[in-house]
Amino acid sequence: MNQTKYIGMDVHVSTTVIAIRNSEGKVVTEAIIETKASTIKDFFRGQRGTLHVTFEEGCQAGWLYDLIRPYVAEVKVCNPRKVVRSDRRSDRIDAKRLAELLRTNAITPTYHGEHSTRNLKELARCYIAIVHDSTRVKNRLKAVFRGRGIPCKGDSVYSKEDRNDWRRKIDNAARLSRANRLWKQLDYLTELAEEAKKELLKEARKHAAVKILRSAPGIGPLRAAILLAVADTPHRFRTIKQFWAYCGLAVRSKITGEYEMIGGQIRRTKKQPLIRGLNRNYSRALKNVFKGAADTASKGLWKKQYAAKVEAGTKSSLVRLTLARKISAITYSIWKKGERYNNKKLKFKQAS
After folding, report:
1. Which residues have C-beta within 8 Å of that of residue 86, sequence separation ≥ 6?
2. 244 Rama class: left (phi>0) / alpha (psi -120 to 50) / beta
3. 180-236: pLDDT as tens digits
4. Do 229 and 121 contact (CB within 8 A), yes or no?
5. Of the residues 22, 198, 280, 332, which has the fewest C-beta atoms closer than 10 A?
6. ∠ CA(290), CA(296), CA(302), 5° rounding?
7. Could you give the 3-state DSSP secondary structure of residue 284?
8. Cβ(35)–Cβ(16) under 8 Å?
9. pLDDT tens sequence across 91-114
10. Contact 239, 223 (CB under 8 A)
């Protein structure tokens, strides 16, 4: 008899706690195994029936997904923020809870699909992490001067040519030593970022989708590479609104008292939803891509449209948001259709 089994895994660095439920919800097996590729493979090879597996998103999720997928019918990597937990917590309870949520189809899965972009993903993560580290060092470097009341605007403080001028502004030996080490750290991170960027762009050229993405306004080789690495495919998003939400460009709204009684009948009110800004749960890498693309387009391809909106009284930040949403919509559309962008087809409108 081909029995359906629902497997919940609570994964940790050294051990993994597993709970298996049958189609009626009864726990039929519990196990604690080593978090090791050979051990996990042996466990699933020894299982019979149609296997459905879930575990929480984490640093091991990608590796575990690829490892388990050939041995089971379905793998769902769940969003830990959307897992309803009980007051009592333990590894065994969590594993059984995950198995029950999977059985009742109450899991909110995260995307794990495109194997062809695995290398690109690793290189993009490396580059993004180095850039973030560089930004932290720059902020610390400026803090050295601001902490002594020394104005520190612009990028001059990072420049090798201007460093002696900045050194002379520091009157404390220990503070100067701190600044010198931060400059050294920044130089090394800059070198690493350049190496990571070259490797990322080299890998990106292997993917045909990058040529399509690069045709979108403001999207250059680096932004196209990061976009492909982070988003994988446009087909994981059913609509542009879902893509906007993933990129941090979706407008949040709130309304209460949506219905009212009129003449004994329930009617929807004409009250307008209140705008609450953009969504907060998003990919920062993609938001940076489209914000940067909007800045580029506002100084180049769409310079006239940008200037016209600003002169008409619209805040420059809102115009750039409009451009970012427009560029993301164009990118989503051409990527899904598999065709390059044609500027002649575009009609520029203010996003609402």
Report:
1. 93, 97
2. alpha
3. 999 999 999 999 999 999 999 999 999 999 999 999 999 999 999 999 999 999 998
4. yes
5. 280
6. 100
7. helix
8. yes
9. 899 999 999 999 999 888 887 765
10. no
Structurally, at CATH architecture level, domain 4-110 sits in 2-Layer Sandwich (3.30)
pTM: 0.78
CA distance 292 to 289: 5
Domain boundaries, the chain: 4-110, 118-204, 209-345
The candidate with the shortest Cα–Cα distance to 50, out of 19, 79, 75, is 75
74-78: strand order across its sheet:
27-34, 15-22, 4-11, 50-56, 74-78, 109-110
Could you tell me if 3 and 26 are in contact, meaning their C-beta atoms sit under 8 angstroms apart?
Answer: no
Q: Which of 137, 158, 124, 156 is nearest to 288 (CA)?
A: 124
Residues 305, 310: Cα–Cα separation, whole Å: 9
SS3 call for 81: helix
Q: What residue type is assigned to position 12 of the chain?
A: H
Decide if 52 contacts 102 (C-beta within 8 A).
yes
